[in-house]
Amino acid sequence: MANADVDTALAERVRELEQRLEAAERARLAAEEEVAELRVELAHTGERGRLAAVHTERLLEGLEVLGEARDVLPLFAEVLRVLGDVLEFDAAFVVGFAPEVSPQIVSATDPRLYAVAWPGGAFTDRVLAGRTVALFDLAGNLEWQQVDPALRGEYASALHVPLHALHSQAMLVCLHRRRGFFIADRITRARRFAALVRQALRTAEQLVDLESDRNHAVALSRAKSRFVAGVSHELRTPVDAIVGYCEHLLEEPAARQGPELAEVLGRIYLSARVLCDLLGNILDLSKIEAGRMDLELGTVAIAETCRLALVTVAPLAARNGNRVRVELAPDLPELRSDAGKLRQILINLLANACKFTEAGTIDLLVRADPGDAPALVFQVRDTGKGLAPEECAALFRPFTQLGLAETRRGGTGLGLTIAKYLTELMGGTIGLDSVVGVGTTFTVRLPLAGST
Asked: Which UniProt keywords apply (predicted)?
């Protein structure tokens, strides 16, 4: 009996061990299956990560192009190119919608798609209202039933994405030959990218609007300049005649012998000269705005140019009791520039000084500056009332006249603007230094030959 009990115990022990081995084997197989599944999932995760990186790269490339787009049609073509990599469709097209016009295919990946006559309807209205809709079966949609049967037969599923801009509406249609291809993940990608496309479309349309407004403003400005130039030219001819007649009459014996007549003629002459200068400034501004102000380069006779400028402003200086002086530094270097425009710059600066100085002194100083950028320096310095800093900031703006209305001495507010433009046209600079109650100094620097 003892041996039988031992055999029974051993048999039970063997069965127990066999059962444990079977359980361990099942656990081992289950573990191997789980490891295999984890490896597959890891591979899938890596693939999804790789695809996400590829999609992100494609989107960034597309956004760079979209951000540079200046026209809507090329932008649509770029949208199709980028989304082809992101959504992996077989074909796609963009339908454009406009009031009282049939829907038009404005861009497509396949030339055959341009022949699609999109019917529109309730389904399209739902998409244009902002919904992204995927169709797993084109034949079941009422609007797709009106599209060419050959096209419906080639593609099994479609994704419809709304694209809105400021002035237009469009719908992106993505096609695939496999039924149910456009799953939730692809729909989400399309929605995200569509939001970026809509912003790009709005930006492109805004740029088009701005360009159109700019062109319209330029056309109006040119028309205005032509009108002002024509009117000013017509007015200047009789004013020149008045100036000539006054000069002739002032030379007559009757004017020399009759002080009252000479005074009246002098006033007429001065007023005509002022009016002539004003018309000249308006003509010059019209040329500047039209881009027709050219330089006539040559060697400038500095002393003669300054003398002619002083002769021109002498009546204005006399009217306010001012004394005008000129001081030329010895051995001035040769200046190659436009003598006529330099004379006009000096006249405008001297006239401005005469206008705002009473019973004072106005100096025209000319010297050379042999510094790093050799230049000839012209300074117009007056003993007038001077300007506050906020007035200096606005001084060179067109049609700007400083001071209260009762203290302004006529003019158009163009003289300094034109002086600044002409100085810069000749490659120079113009500066201003003014102290209230002390006076104002304008400094013009014109580069000498060989300087930059």
From this structure: Coiled coil, Kinase, Phosphoprotein, Transferase
What is the Cα–Cα distance from 40 to 98, expressed in whole angstroms? 50
Vertex 156: Cα angle to 155 and 159 (nearest 5):
90
pLDDT of residue 444: 92
Residue 235: C-alpha distances to residues 85, 112, 195, 242, 280 (Å): 68, 66, 59, 11, 10
In terms of Cα–Cα distance, which of 258, 394, 284, 133 is closest to 266? 258
- Of 178, 207, 236, which closes a domain? 207
The answer to whether residues 188 and 320 belong to one domain is no
Three-state DSSP string of 391-431 = HHHCCCCCCCCCCCHHHCCCCCCCHHHHHHHHHHHCCCEEE
The whole-angstrom separation of Cα 227 and Cα 161 is 52
Count of C-beta atoms within a 10 Å radius of residue 419: 25
Say if residue 55's pLDDT is above 50: yes
Q: Find the mean pLDDT for residues 119-142.
A: 89
Q: Do the beta carbons of residue 171 and residue 161 sit within 8 Å?
A: yes
* Residue in the block written with tokens 């006076």: 439
Q: How far is residue 103's CA from residue 246's CA, in Å, rounded to a whole number?
A: 74
Q: What is the DSSP letter of 372?
A: S
Structure tokens at 377: 């320096």
Report how far residue 95's alpha carbon sits from residue 172's, in angstroms, rounded to the nearest whole number.
7
Same domain, 308 and 203: no
Domains identified in the chain, total number = 2
Q: Which two tokens stand for residue 444?
A: 């013009």
Helix (H, G, I), strand (E, B) or coil at 65: helix
- Model pLDDT, residue 410: 47
Cα 143 to Cα 156: distance, rounded to the nearest angstrom:
15
What DSSP state is assigned to residue 111? G
Q: What is the pLDDT of residues 415-434, one digit of tens each?
A: 788 888 888 888 899 988 88
Rounded percentage of the chain residues whose pLDDT exceeds 70: 66
d(CA 86, CA 93): 15
Question: What is the C-alpha separation between 360 and 317, in angstroms, rounded?
Answer: 9
What secondary structure letter does DSSP report for 263? H
The rounded distance, in Å, linking the Cα atoms of 205 and 198 is 11
Domain harbouring 309, CATH code: 3.30.565.10
Q: What is the DSSP string of 123-181?
A: HHHHHHTT--EEES-GGGSTTGGGS-HHHHHH--EEEEEEEE-SS-EEEEEEEESSTT-
SS3 (DSSP) at 110? coil
C-beta separation of 211 from 163 below 8 A? no
Characterize the bridge pairing of strands 323-328 and 361-369. Answer: parallel
Model confidence over 4-27: pLDDT tens digits?
666 677 777 777 777 877 877 776
